[in-house]
Amino acid sequence: MKKQFKLEELGCASCAAKMETAVAKLPGVTNVQVNFMRETLTLEAADEQFDDVVKAAQKAIKKIEPDVRVIL
């Protein structure tokens, strides 16, 4: 499954790159892209793992940039 999410309060391009790297390392993630200019997270994972991967991605993003909200 592949979905795109809005990232609110994304502060800088460097943080976006760190988020992309962190989420890419999560188990079950097959592809990820964080677009700083559009403030989006595009996440791809197996259907049966997708909800767990999204939750893990949210936690990883919060560790890097606590003010960012992932709009589901």
General description of the model:
By secondary structure, the chain is α+β, with helices and mostly antiparallel strands. Helices cover 38% and strands 32% of the residues. It has two helices and four strands, in the order βαββαβ. A four-stranded antiparallel sheet has the order 2-3-1-4. β2 (29-35) and β3 form a beta hairpin. α1 runs antiparallel to α2 (50-64). The radius of gyration is 11 Å and the shape is globular. The mean pLDDT is 97.
For the CA atoms, what is the radius of gyration?
A: 11 Å
Query: Can you count the beta strands?
Result: 4
Task: Specify the biggest β-sheet.
Answer: 4 strands, antiparallel
Alpha-carbon distance between the two ends: 14 Å
> What is the general shape?
globular
Helix vs. strand class: alpha+beta
- Helix coverage percent: 25-40%
